Amino acid sequence: MRTAAPLPLAVHPLTREAFAPYGEVVEVSDAVRHFTINAGNTERYHDLANIEPGPDGRVIVSIFRGQPRSLPFTVQMMERHPLASQAFVPMSGKPYLVVVAPAGAPPAAEDLKVFLARADQGVNYATGVWHHPLLALEGVCDFLVVDRSGPGHNCDEVQLDRPGVIEAL
């Protein structure tokens, strides 16, 4: 039973370094390997995320349509995918929030980290990393999702004993 007031959660800019414990940031950057292809007409930003389908899975591509959330937003649950990674790449040109916690035991509010992703940044959650479902901010947002299809249970959800609250950006 929840008795404590929600824990205020600070929002941090999404950077490759800050997000590294949870997976990869998918973005165009001089910091990633890139090279020119197609007779000099295209710059390829190469191998931006480690897509892990698990031993019996296959990689699939889907589109998720996220409904907008307003602030303050109370984080009451988290989920993880114990068999595979899951990548989200925004398609609607709008920023969004990313809430994560380390892989392992179910998280507490104190374990949560909140990032503000720019409209040109995607994320790839490493296998087993706890995360909140999509948190679109400025209207309906579509995301290209790269994840797993296959046998086995690949989604665990937990309710937090004490919720967190995102009060402002």
TrEMBL record:
Keywords, sorted A to Z: Lyase, Purine metabolism
Pathway named in the protein's UniProt entry: Nitrogen metabolism; (S)-allantoin degradation
Pfam families named in the record: Ureidogly_lyase (PF04115)
Cofactor: Ni(2+)
InterPro entries: RmlC_Cupin_sf, UAH_cupin, Ureidogly_lyase, Ureidogly_lyase_bac, Ureidoglycolate_lyase_dom_sf
Top-level EC class as recorded in UniProt: lyase
Catalytic activity: (S)-ureidoglycolate = urea + glyoxylate
Gene Ontology BP annotations: allantoin catabolic process; purine nucleobase catabolic process
Keyword Lyase recorded: yes
Keyword Lyase included in the entry's annotation: yes
GO molecular function terms listed in the Swiss-Prot or TrEMBL record: ureidoglycolate hydrolase activity; ureidoglycolate lyase activity
The organism's place on the tree of life at top rank: Bacteria
Residues that span the membrane, as ranges: none
UniProt-listed Enzyme Commission number(s): 4.3.2.3
Protein purpose: Catalyzes the catabolism of the allantoin degradation intermediate (S)-ureidoglycolate, generating urea and glyoxylate. Involved in the utilization of allantoin as nitrogen source.
UniProt family annotation: Belongs to the ureidoglycolate lyase family.
Protein name as catalogued: Ureidoglycolate lyase
Species of origin: Thauera aminoaromatica
Origin organism lineage: Bacteria, Pseudomonadati, Pseudomonadota, Betaproteobacteria, Rhodocyclales
Gene designation per UniProt: allA
